[in-house]
Amino acid sequence: MPNTLTTISATDLKDALESEHPPILINTLPRSAHKSKHIPGSINIPVDDIEQVESLVPNKDAPLVVYCANGDCEASPAAAQALEEMGYTNVYDFEAGYTGWRRADLPLAGEAA
After folding, report:
1. pLDDT digits (tens, 9 = 90+) for 22-35
2. Within-domain flag for 72
3. Can you tell me the distance from the alpha carbon of 94 to that of 59, in angstroms, rounded to the nearest whole number?
4. Which of 5, 51, 68, 103 could hold 75 in an S-S bridge, CB 3.0 to 4.6 Å?
5. Does the pTM exceed 0.90?
6. Which residue, 65, 58, 53, is CA-closest to 15?
7. ∠1-72-66 over CA atoms, to 5°?
8. Could you report the per-residue pLDDT of 18-73, keeping only the tens digit for each?
9. Does residue 109 lie in a domain region?
10. CA end-to-end span of the chain, whole Å?
């Protein structure tokens, strides 16, 4: 199956988060990883629990951005695909994850940030 995921850059994500209608930013890593470090404003829904998004975000057209640790991490692409299969129409994968966020000189939150 071809990769149809829509990706977003750190700069575009930062701009979107500061916009009037920011996307819902989802850290797809385990809770312990999210507690350690995450992009400010993100919520934590581990990829294995991604179906919880339906109760949190009933609007299937709401913009969702998923991310994990870095480009090699499989959690966010898997979560993005699952969300699309659940009927969400506006899903982005921030492939670079919190590693790319930091590389763009943007701040992280959390105990180890």
Report:
1. 999 999 999 999 99
2. yes
3. 21
4. 68
5. yes
6. 65
7. 75
8. 999 999 999 999 999 999 999 999 999 999 999 999 999 999 999 999 999 999 99
9. no
10. 36
Taken as a whole, the chain contains a residue count of 113
Residue 22 lies in a domain: yes
- Calculate the CA 91 to chain-centre distance: 9
Q: How many separate domains does the chain show?
A: 1
Rounded distance between C-alpha atoms, residue 87 and residue 103, angstroms: 32
Bigger pLDDT: 7 vs 2: 7
Alpha-carbon gap, residue 65 to 93, rounded angstroms: 6
Tell me which long-range contacts 55-60 makes (C-beta under 8 A, separation of at least 24). Answer: 56/24, 57/24, 57/88, 60/86, 60/87, 60/88, 60/89
d(Cα 49, Cα 51) in Å, to the nearest integer?
A: 5
